[in-house]
Amino acid sequence: MTGFSKVAVYRQDMPPKGGYSPIPWSRLPARRIPLWPFVSIWLASNIFGYFYHMSEKREYWRSEMEMDESRSCIEPILLAEQDRIVLRQYRANRDEEKKLMNDVPGWEVGTWFGEKVFKSRTFFPDRPHVLDYYGLSRPSTQRLDVNASQWQI
């Protein structure tokens, strides 16, 4: 025979002596976590944040006041530099006009067909007209100067 004819002998599991322990089916309340550590941490962080914010705000306004004072101190220097740039451009325009109109007889530089443009020597416009300022310059120069607003206050 091939060995398949033998019947296996099984032994049934039986409960342990004294029986099984009882099954816990009643509700177990969750462990309570105390609230006071979280509230105290929250309160401490709020108090610290308030005083930190006040000190930072005080420092911000102190530096802002210093920047305002420095801006008001440097404003005349920037205006003088802007006027210097305008005068330099007027001088370049005048030199260019002198070079261009050199061959025209009776041409006076800085006049409008022989008539003076400004009646007095003290008048100087606050903002020059665009055609006066960029009259004899290249368009690329005008674009560069218009886009660079570094002297504007």
Automatic annotation (TrEMBL):
Domain of life of the source: Eukaryota
What keywords appear on the UniProt entry?
Electron transport, Membrane, Mitochondrion, Mitochondrion inner membrane, Respiratory chain, Transmembrane, Transmembrane helix, Transport
Q: Where is the signal peptide?
A: none
Q: Which GO terms describe its cellular component?
A: mitochondrial inner membrane; respiratory chain complex I
> Looking at the Swiss-Prot or TrEMBL record, what is one Pfam family this protein matches?
GRIM-19
- How is the protein disposed in the membrane? Single-pass membrane protein
Task: Extract the PANTHER family matched here.
Answer: NADH DEHYDROGENASE [UBIQUINONE] 1 ALPHA SUBCOMPLEX SUBUNIT 13 (PTHR12966:SF0), NADH DEHYDROGENASE UBIQUINONE 1 ALPHA SUBCOMPLEX SUBUNIT 13 (PTHR12966)
Annotated family = Belongs to the complex I NDUFA13 subunit family.
Function recorded in the entry = Complex I functions in the transfer of electrons from NADH to the respiratory chain. Accessory subunit of the mitochondrial membrane respiratory chain NADH dehydrogenase (Complex I), that is believed not to be involved in catalysis. Accessory subunit of the mitochondrial membrane respiratory chain NADH dehydrogenase (Complex I), that is believed not to be involved in catalysis. Complex I functions in the transfer of electrons from NADH to the respiratory chain. The immediate electron acceptor for the enzyme is believed to be ubiquinone. Involved in the interferon/all-trans-retinoic acid (IFN/RA) induced cell death. This apoptotic activity is inhibited by interaction with viral IRF1. Prevents the transactivation of STAT3 target genes.
Q: How does it assemble?
A: Complex I is composed of 45 different subunits. Interacts with CARD15, but not with CARD4. Interacts with STAT3, but not with STAT1, STAT2 and STAT5A. Interacts with OLFM4.
Name of the protein described by the UniProt record: NADH dehydrogenase [ubiquinone] 1 alpha subcomplex subunit 13
